[in-house]
Automatic annotation (TrEMBL):
Record organism: Fibrella aestuarina BUZ 2
EC main group: transferase
Known catalytic reactions: (sulfur carrier)-H + L-cysteine = (sulfur carrier)-SH + L-alanine
UniProt keyword Transferase present: yes
Full protein name: Cysteine desulfurase
Length: 412
């Protein structure tokens, strides 16, 4: 197998930045290969959470005392950091949510309910996570819309010719995943966006799996909405981002009612706040929002290009290594992939594989990965998924290979 070429990253130091990696699981050093589910958190993020609660704990946008002003300044600094991270035109186009799922539901319940009606069409793809299927099904049931699905080939690539055939003058919204959580496929989202815009449709991109692996530029993509979760980008859980073009956000009604999202309330009428606050009702997840800036700063300190290059080499190394295991079949061989490998072992259930690997201190994901329609298309119940991040190593991949040989021996 080809070894990793020289990288400017100090992988040993990066691993030291993540305290959770320094532990034994079932008597073995932890190998964490479940990064597509959630990434681990660097010390800088953990310190940011502690610092807020120890020094700046206060509500934001309301108080005039020192703690409130410091908390507000830090909260809004994250908004500007996310704007820069996505290359959004304005900070007001950044809405803080509770995660990717929440962001998709926000768009479905506000833009969808307002602008889609009977006979209008929504297009998604076979690769979607349930979070980018169910909200649109609910909208279509409520509003009488038609849900269409872009098919894939056996490698896990979208069939763009078929996508073009699905587009009509009734297509109002296209919502597709940037990167498949189950297969690692990188979708040609710029092409998808351009073709949707040609028929007057708006486009939402689910970036949950993309932001920690790909440099995102929402202006270059020209997407109308982009959503992601912080916890898959070395940040805390329970916090996400919705990017939306200003004109669309201003034309959409609020998602939730309460404090912060109002300008004036009377018993007869309420006037709503400007964006982004119109969509941020109530006390937000202040500590986690503030800590996200530390996660983005950490990514910037390593360099997005350096991270992507290193993870690409990990993927190539792991692909070659797993292909050498008799009876193992990699599921999903798209032309463009990020560092996710799903596979099946002949005659061995994926849950048995996961349990035996865990006994050896190796954490992987097993099951349908919240992509049941995709699994049905592939003719399988589920897979074992190994997903890599910048703190993983080829030595850990070698341990995975040995672990899988152990699985085969035990299940023979």
């Amino acid at each position: 197998m080809q070894a990793i070429t020289q990288t400017p990253l100090d992988i040993a130091q990066i691993r030291a930045d993540f305290p959770v990696l320094n532990q034994l699981v079932n008597g073995r050093p932890l190998v964490y290969f479940d990064n597509a589910a959630t990434t681990q958190k660097p010390r800088a993020v953990l310190d940011a959470l502690t610092r807020y609660y120890e020094h700046d704990n206060a509500n934001i946008h309301r108080g005039i005392h020192a703690l409130a002003e410091r908390a507000t300044a830090s909260f809004e600094a994250t908004r500007r950091a996310v704007q820069s991270f996505l290359n959004a035109r304005e900070a007001e186009e950044i809405i803080f949510t509770y995660g990717t799922t929440d962001g998709i539901n926000l768009v479905a319940k506000t833009y969808g309910r307002t602008y889609l009606g009977v006979g209008d069409e929504v297009i998604i793809s076979t690769l979607e996570h349930h979070s980018n299927i169910v909200p649109w099904q609910m909208l279509c049931e409520e509003r009488g819309c038609v849900l269409k699905v872009i098919p894939i080939d056996d490698n896990g690539d979208l069939l763009l010719d078929e996508y073009e055939k699905l587009l009509t003058e009734r297509t109002k919204l296209v919502s597709v995943v940037h990167v498949s959580n189950a297969l690692g496929t990188i979708n040609p989202v710029k092409t998808i966006i351009d073709k949707a815009h040609a028929v007057g449709a708006v486009v939402l991109i689910d970036g949950a799996q993309a932001t920690s692996h790909i440099d995102i530029d929402v202006q270059a993509l020209d997407c109308d909405f982009y959503v992601f979760s912080a916890h898959k980008l070395f940040g805390p859980t329970g916090m996400g981002v919705l990017y939306g073009k200003r004109a669309l956000l201003e034309a959409m009604p609020p998602f939730r009612g309460g404090g912060e999202m109002i300008k004036e309330v009377t018993f007869e009428k309420t006037t709503y706040n400007d964006i982004p606050y119109k969509f941020e009702a109530g006390t937000p997840n202040i500590a986690d929002v503030i800590a996200v800036k530390s996660a983005l700063d950490y990514v910037d300190s390593l360099g997005k290009e350096n991270i992507a290059a290193y993870e690409h080499e990990l993927l190539a190394y792991a692909t070659e290594a797993l292909q050498g295991i008799d009876g193992l079949r990699i599921v999903g061989n798209a032309k463009e992939k990020i560092s996710v490998i799903s596979f099946v072992l002949d005659g061995i259930h994926h849950e048995d594989t996961g349990v035996i690997l865990d006994q050896q201190g190796i954490a992987v994901r097993t099951g349908h990965h919240c992509t049941q329609p995709l699994m049905r298309r592939l003719g399988i119940a589920g897979t074992t998924r190994a997903s890599f991040s910048v703190y993983n190593t080829t030595d850990e991949i070698d341990r995975l290979v040995k672990g899988l040989e152990r699985v085969k021996t035990m299940m023979a």
